[in-house]
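Friendly challenge for the regulars: who can give me the structure tokens for this chain first? No prize, just bragging rights.
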Amino acid sequence: MPPKQSPRRSALLAEMSVVSRRYMAAYALFNQAVADRLGLHPTDLQCLNLLSLEAAPVTTGRVAELTGLTTGSATRLVDRLVRAGYVTRARDTADRRRVLVATVPERMAEFGAVWKRLNGGWDALFDAYDDDQVALLLGHMRRTVELSAAQIARLREGEA
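First reply, four minutes later:
Bragging rights claimed.
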């Protein structure tokens, strides 16, 4: 049995439950607005975001891993991004059986320009925090990414 929580901690966790729901909704709505601005689906936008973090072109299987989608859904996502001009498909020169998905630099520059215009507000948000607080936030974000991946897997496997 877990130890009894203090009234302050109980109140903070209750507030966290409400605020985190607002936080997630705000991010989802922000993501939708950026996707709308670029003429993309929100999942496609986040796929481009993840592809921009990869060191080299990736397979559609890797797109599926990055997004948590099935390979069939990832293929359809890549098809949409090809039609929109954000990515290309090309045979892997080292293994002609593999097809790699690569971002189109000019289109990614447009993508990056939208983020850059919006980044000033995000950067200023962190001015109120000292280095230890920023490190705490980074740790929280990393743990959230890990937990989200585990929760996505549970949902996909029908456990939740």
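The first helix runs from residue 7 to 38. The chain is about 70% helix and 10% strand. Your move, everyone else.
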